[in-house]
Amino acid sequence: MTKWGKRTEAVHGGIRRSQYGELSEAMFMTQAFAYPSAEAAEARFIESGPDEFIYARYGNPTNRMFEDRIAAIEGTEDAFACASGMAAVNGALMALTQAGDHVVSSRALFGSCLYILEDVLGRFGVEITLVDGTDNAAWEAAIRPDTKLVFLEAISNPTLEVIDLAHVVKLAHDHGALVVVDNAMPTPVYSYATRLGADLVVYSTTKHVDGQGRMLGGAICGPRDLIRGPIEAYVKHTGGAINPFAAWTHLKALETLDLRVRAQAGATMQVAEALADHPKLLRMSYPQHPSHPQHAVAMQQAPSGGTVLAIEVAGGKEACFRFLNALQIFTISNNFADAKSIATHPATTTHQRLPQDQKDTLGISDGLVRLSIGLEDPDDIISDLKQALDAA
Description:
Blueprint: H1 6-12, H2 38-46, H3 61-74, E1 78-82, H4 85-95, E2 102-106, H5 111-123, E3 127-131, H6 136-142, E4 147-153, H7 165-174, E5 178-182, E6 200-204, H8 206-210, E7 218-222, H9 224-238, H10 244-254, H11 257-275, E8 281-285, H12 295-301, E9 308-313, H13 316-326, E10 331-332, E11 342-344, H14 356-362, E12 368-372, H15 378-391
Parallel strand pairs: 2-3, 2-4, 4-5, 5-6, 10-11
Antiparallel strand pairs: 1-7, 6-7, 8-9, 9-12, 11-12
Helix pairs in contact: 1-3, 3-10, 4-5, 4-9, 11-15, 13-15
């Protein structure tokens, strides 16, 4: 067999067995590696083979298994595993830009992504243009012949805007620009970024890959010349590589990724249907629900919108907090994509440092709640949400 499905790759991809023939992947907890001779050490520093390692910041057998496996699932040539999702975003953007470059990005981004674009890249002389990602005309007006890179969240966090990725990719490539997609919301299971031509796909593997609230991690997936060229050089020298224990935990979690995500996504659609016309809500947003503004584009791109939906509780912050405090199954936290259902109030947590005008532009109101649907019984999840909305 020359090509496996995602579920098979998630179990068998990238396996490296030691001389002991272990069934479960080995965890190599080592900072450095030994050489049989001075000549061997010299040779490895000149050019390392695919199973030769120098230092944990540069690479590790456990990390390499995870990189091979996540790349196989995503459908890219290679991947580099990072210490967190934000280390992956920073690594991809910093490795591929320099002073004088022009970057176009969607405006609806996680707060830390906006910080890297505006504060970090901007500080070093990179020109940043932010656009309404759902407006194809805005992309057409912003991308120029000298644009170096385009960045976007395939589905935005936390308002779940959906971008017409095929249109943006074609436009960027016509101008010679690279496209980097943050793919946290679509998940590796329902990913369409590589299929639609994105050059690099970035994951916070903290989310669905680990998916059980244990480990931080990230991954940059793409062509080998970019991954083992500028991206590896930047990440390994600036210390953003994943640690072997996190990589090993991710490897074991990948075995159940497809099962978990499909169950969670199915439950999320059930929740969306149950809350779509609830009288205590001003709106409910889930890409695959017919009420979503970009529903047609979402359905063209993927069969599922993932494991997260957004609601806006009528009555503002006071009513919203009553709703949150009445939840019994949901945990109030700032994470998402966990096995446990999580409720987040972005305006006062993940996006609270954004100026009010930016919150207003992005639709992050005092009533907005991001709901991450877990692995509990869908009927219990819906009952919990309804009783909490009664309390609001």
